[in-house]
Specification:
With about 120 residues, the protein is mostly helical. The chain has one domain: c-terminal domain of poly(a) binding protein, CATH 1.10.1900.20. It has 6 helices and no strands. The protein is rod-shaped.
């Protein structure tokens, strides 16, 4: 009788890694050793990028706000300063969506900021 080492655990572990490497090109998608390294690297990048995404989204909202506010005759920094002085607490995501979806309400917010800084 042959001796079983690890039973099906070894096979299952390898199948799991190769399943995660599905779609990788060349040896990285078919060879276990290469696939293991590629999967570890890809999971590391995925973890980092999930955290970077939050900062990238914030910078996108700020860019959109800057463009929308400049059309009203203010800079982004003066706009935020005006909102702070006026006591308006709206986050950048909401302001960005407001500028895109509801320009009339956004214009009212800009006017509030202008009054607060005396522009």
């Amino acid at each position: 009788m042959s001796r079983v080492i690890n039973g099906t655990k070894r096979l299952n572990r390898r199948k799991k890694i190769l399943k995660m490497a599905k779609g990788f090109t060349g040896r990285r998608g078919t060879n276990f050793k290469a696939a293991k390294d590629a999967v570890v690297k890809s999971l590391t990048h995925a973890y980092e990028h999930r955290r970077n995404k939050k900062g990238e989204m914030r910078s996108l909202w700020i860019t959109r706000l800057n463009a929308a506010v400049r059309a009203e005759g203010l800079s982004y920094s003066r706009f935020i300063d005006g909102l702070t002085k006026a006591g308006v607490i709206i986050n950048r995501k909401a302001l960005s969506n407001m500028a895109i979806e509801d320009p009339v309400a956004f214009k009212a917010v800009v006017e509030t900021a202008k009054k607060a800084i005396g522009a």
